[in-house]
């Protein structure tokens, strides 16, 4: 993998001819604008999307993770295990979870190749080095990496500045939350070279007890510009240590003490909690490297070539009470002892790298992109038992499972936007994607049927064709209309394979996405709507069903859909005052659904045919309101969000749901400007202004005992009113 990445660095760059009258700094800025364009939607692409620029990000970036910085865009819900928006956070768009949202940085896939999700805790403070983000709802444009089944988030890291600068920033607030960062840029040196870098430290005790996070991060880039050639090396990543807050609370626990954290509990023989394990932590290092080559071939053609390599390694410790020793192949260590308290450590090491290329053509009537990507992933998972109550540490150094994964992801695409007549644009996007996924070794689940760890032997190849087409019609200089249809496919995740039944392999999923929208932009008022209908074939959902060793699995349901309308509007109330709103009203259904529950009386499971039901974690209503004010260095924003009721399972049971919630935030800031000091900004973010007691995430589980169905939940409470203060000094 390292050889693959290094080979890209040695590729020759074809030199172009720059316009002689252009200053070097102007050429540098222009070249960076075309670095990563193949995966982006333009103003005339018939795709529902939102753009968030660097100026806007700087006003709201107090250290919280990217899901919370995007939470005011249409159809988005952000969640946080620790309750503060820092650490273990996630995002849903149109009800779809993070494993179905394609996320790229500089066109490079960020989704984990196995789980398909992005662990934002492993890329701390990335938002401080972002130039802009585009979130595409629905299938969107062709992109690299995991299939987009709800949205795509395209991140561009910050552009190199032709002028030198230095910046120091500090944040502090509730729950001992803090962020310190130092950044600098050299400006253009010798007409060709420029460099910038940032280091950050982020920490928080968390709202939930012991849900602490400690993050160290860096971002660095070096650029070379000559004529029509741009070569830029970008590296970012860091190290994090986060105490677990994964388990959630029962409703009774939320009422008694909503800050309680059951993770790390140590119990005695009677099951009484006598303490907490201090090192119940997740630890991970991740380093991302991009080599981006941009070549202007002519005034209309340019080439992008990106080589990338990401390394990751980490582990987490878990204290387990009264565990069966046979589950860890420990029966021979203590004859006569079948259960004990123990500490297990699960580890992983992985490498991900590849090459991404595109050739882009831009003219007054036609924009085209041709390209593709080849990405390789290799990873190993293994687990150790480091301590058992009955043994001294020197007696035990025990590995109980190890497995390997290799995955190849290849795609090619062709995309065009053609102005047929003056006001009508046609859009077409064709992608072919091929995936080869191999897993072998032993899993972390014990199979009592054979008295050994579950064996893994997965070797699957997928070939997907993903066509997209649409029309964009400009009614006049203020309004436009668009319509599109797209097909997307998605391969199963690692867990879909490891938790499947022995004789039933998970099938790939397919999505048909219809979008219809209208936008009006005036000097005082703007508005828009987007209708969508997303029809799924063989969508993988949790049904309550388990495999032969009792692990919950995701099953393919033949037919399901999401349909809704996204509304957006904004009005200039006064010279310096704006009001922007957006709302999503949706219906999310599974057809012919069958639910399964564990039968404690007779063993096995009971099946109940339900028919049509709601998809879990899919609120019918999501709405946001933003009042923003700017005047002479002062800016303020009053933000409000409403998220409707969400069911924790697909059974529409009220006691297994998240109540709707309405949360308001206030952000204020003032920027001073000077001659020696470019700017001094002071700001405050007050979240959950009115102290709403709500839970943003959870899980549900049902079983039957004594002929009665019991429903249990795990809930993740969020912090009440909390505040962060920030000071940023820029030279």
* Helical amount: under 10%
What is the CATH superfamily classification?
A: TonB-dependent receptor, beta-barrel domain
The secondary structure category is mainly beta
β-strand percent reads over 45%
Shape: globular
- Uncertain stretches of 5 or more adjacent residues: 1-21
How many structural domains? 1
Q: Over the alpha carbons, how many angstroms does the gyration radius reach?
A: 26 Å
Q: Do you know the CATH topology?
A: Maltoporin, Chain A
Name of the CATH first level:
Mainly Beta
Largest sheet: 22 strands, antiparallel, barrel
Number of helices: 6
Quickly give the CATH architecture: Beta Barrel
Mean pLDDT figure: 92
Q: How far from one another are the termini?
A: 40 Å
Number of distinct beta strands: 36
What does this protein look like?
- This protein is mainly beta.
- The protein has one domain (2-730): Beta Barrel (Maltoporin, Chain A), CATH 2.40.170.
- Helices cover 5% and strands 60% of the residues.
- It is globular.
- The model is unreliable at 1-21 (pLDDT under 50).
Spell out the blueprint of helices and strands.
Blueprint lengths: L1 H8 L14 H10 L15 E5 H7 L5 H4 L6 E5 L8 E5 L7 E5 L2 E2 L20 E8 L13 E7 L7 E9 L3 E9 L7 E12 L8 E14 L2 E15 L7 H6 L8 E3 L5 E4 L4 E16 L4 E24 L14 E24 L3 E23 L9 E24 L2 E24 L4 E23 L4 E12 L3 H5 L10 E13 L3 E22 L5 E23 L2 E23 L5 E10 L6 E11 L2 E10 L2 E2 L9 E2 L2 E13 L5 E9 L7 E11 L2 E10 L4 E9 L1
Parallel strand pairs: 4-7, 26-34
Antiparallel strand pairs: 1-6, 2-3, 4-5, 6-7, 8-9, 8-36, 9-10, 10-11, 11-12, 12-15, 13-14, 15-16, 16-17, 17-18, 18-19, 19-20, 20-21, 21-22, 22-23, 23-24, 24-25, 25-26, 26-27, 26-28, 28-29, 29-32, 30-31, 32-33, 33-36, 34-35
């Amino acid at each position: 993998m390292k050889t693959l990445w290094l080979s890209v660095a040695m590729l020759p760059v074809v030199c172009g001819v720059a316009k002689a009258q252009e200053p070097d700094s102007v050429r540098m800025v222009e070249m960076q604008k075309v670095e990563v364009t193949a995966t982006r939607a333009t103003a005339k692409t018939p795709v529902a999307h939102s753009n968030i620029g660097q100026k806007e990000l700087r006003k709201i970036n107090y250290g919280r993770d990217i899901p919370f910085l995007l939470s005011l865009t249409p159809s988005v819900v952000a969640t946080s295990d620790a309750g503060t928006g820092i650490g273990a956070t996630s995002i849903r768009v149109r009800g779809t979870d993070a494993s179905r949202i394609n996320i790229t940085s500089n066109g490079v896939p960020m989704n984990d190749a196995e789980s398909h999700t992005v662990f934002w805790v492993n890329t701390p403070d990335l938002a401080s080095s972002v130039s802009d983000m585009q979130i595409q709802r629905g299938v969107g444009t062709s992109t690299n990496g995991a299939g987009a089944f709800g949205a795509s988030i395209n991140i561009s890291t910050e552009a190199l500045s032709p002028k030198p600068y230095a910046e120091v920033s500090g944040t502090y607030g509730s729950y001992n939350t803090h962020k310190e960062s130092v950044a600098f840029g050299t400006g253009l040196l010798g007409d060709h070279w420029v460099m910038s870098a940032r280091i950050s430290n982020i920490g928080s005790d968390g709202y939930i007890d012991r849900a602490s996070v400690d993050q160290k991060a860096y971002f660095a880039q070096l650029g070379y510009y000559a004529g029509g050639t741009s070569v830029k090396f970008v590296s970012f990543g860091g190290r994090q240590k986060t105490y677990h807050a994964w388990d959630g609370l029962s409703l009774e626990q939320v009422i008694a003490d909503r800050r309680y954290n059951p993770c790390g509990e140590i119990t005695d023989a009677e099951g009484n909690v006598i303490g907490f394990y201090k090192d119940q932590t997740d630890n991970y290092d991740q380093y991302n490297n991009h080599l981006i080559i941009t070549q202007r071939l002519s005034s209309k053609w340019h080439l992008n070539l990106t080589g990338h390599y990401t390394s990751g390694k980490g582990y987490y410790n878990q204290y387990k009470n009264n565990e069966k020793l046979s589950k860890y192949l420990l029966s021979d260590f203590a004859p006569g002892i079948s259960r004990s308290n123990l500490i297990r450590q699960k580890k992983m090491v992985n490498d991900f790298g590849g090459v991404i290329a595109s050739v882009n053509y831009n003219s007054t009537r036609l924009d085209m992109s041709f390209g593709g990507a080849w990405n390789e992933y290799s990873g190993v998972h293994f687990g150790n038992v480091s301590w058992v109550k009955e043994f001294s540490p020197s007696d035990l150094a025990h590995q109980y499972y190890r497995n390997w994964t290799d995955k190849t992801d290849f795609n090619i695409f062709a995309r065009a936007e053609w102005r047929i007549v003056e006001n009508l644009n046609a859009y077409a996007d064709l992608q072919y994607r091929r995936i080869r996924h191999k897993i072998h070794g032993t899993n972390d689940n014990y199979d009592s049927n054979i008295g050994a760890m579950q064996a893994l032997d997965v070797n699957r190849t997928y070939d997907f064709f993903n066509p997209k087409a649409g029309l964009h019609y400009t009614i006049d200089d203020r309004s436009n209309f668009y319509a599109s249809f797209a097909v997307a496919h998605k391969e199963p995740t690692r867990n879909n394979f490891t938790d499947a039944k022995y004789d039933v392999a998970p099938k790939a999923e397919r999505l048909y996405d219809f979008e219809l929208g209208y936008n009006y932009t005036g000097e005082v008022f703007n508005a828009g709507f987007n209708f969508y209908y997303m029809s799924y074939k063989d969508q993988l959902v949790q049904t309550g069903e388990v495999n032969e060793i009792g692990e919950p699995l995701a099953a393919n349901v033949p037919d399901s859909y999401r349909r809704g309308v996204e509304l957006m509007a904004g009005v200039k109330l006064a010279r310096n005052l704006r009001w922007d709103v957006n709302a999503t009203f949706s219906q999310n259904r599974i057809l012919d659904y069958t639910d399964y529950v564990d039968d404690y009386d007779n063993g096995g499971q009971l099946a109940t045919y339900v028919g049509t039901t709601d998809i879990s974690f899919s609120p019918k209503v999501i709405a946001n309101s933003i009042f923003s004010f700017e005047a002479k260095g002062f800016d303020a924003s009053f933000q409000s969000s409403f998220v409707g009721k969400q069911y924790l399972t697909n059974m529409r049971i009220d006691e297994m749901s998240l109540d709707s919630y309405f949360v308001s935030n206030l952000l204020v800031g003032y920027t001073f400007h000077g001659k020696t000091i470019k700017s001094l900004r002071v700001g405050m973010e007050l979240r959950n202004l009115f102290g709403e007691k709500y839970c943003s995430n959870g899980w549900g589980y049902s079983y039957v005992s004594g002929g009665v169905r019991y429903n249990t939940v795990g809930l993740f409470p969020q912090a009440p009113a909390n505040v962060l203060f920030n000071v940023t000094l820029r030279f």
